[in-house]
Design brief:
The chain is about 60% helix and about 0% strand. The chain is mainly alpha-helical and about 140 residues long. It folds into 2 domains: about 15-80, lambda repressor-like DNA-binding domains (434 Repressor (Amino-terminal Domain), Orthogonal Bundle); about 85-125, no CATH class. It is elongated, with a radius of gyration of 23 Å.
């Protein structure tokens, strides 16, 4: 009798892997390329490319960069279809705000931006932590 422990585990395809794979396939077809064409450029077999496209195998970071180059897109192209979580959207907003803030070269403009945020916080009855402003660009 075969026990459950003796059976190989069932590999489940993760949503992100399937979506990235579908974007690879979509772009390849847009360009009119075969799996063999793209696989040759990447130095893998067409069967491996099939596994990437179906989401059976994950595409590593360096392979994804190579894939993007081969298909003439930025690596972010493969993630455009992924649903963003609230935390992801929040992190992106914070990163954008920080990038914009750092692009302000004038100390006075930075102070004005911080004061504006504090006023917005007070206007919405939220407490502002009020960290010190750095002189670093």
């Amino acid at each position: 009798m075969v026990s459950a422990r003796d059976e190989p585990p069932i590999k489940r395809i993760k949503e992100a892997d399937a979506l990235v794979g579908s974007r690879i396939r979509e772009r390849r077809l847009q360009l009119g390329l075969t799996q063999e064409n793209v696989a040759a450029v990447l130095g893998v077999t067409f069967q491996q490319l099939q596994k990437y496209e179906r989401g059976f195998n994950r595409v590593g970071a360096s392979r994804l960069v190579d894939m993007a180059r081969a298909l003439g897109v930025q690596p972010s192209y493969f993630f455009d279809a992924l649903p963003a979580t609230h935390e992801t959207k929040q992190s992106l907003l914070e990163a954008e705000l920080l990038t914009d803030f750092r692009s302000l070269r004038s100390h006075e403009l930075r102070e004005a931006a911080v004061e504006m945020v504090r006023l917005l916080c007070r206007a919405t009855n939220k407490k502002s932590p009020g960290p010190a402003i750095s002189d670093d660009p």
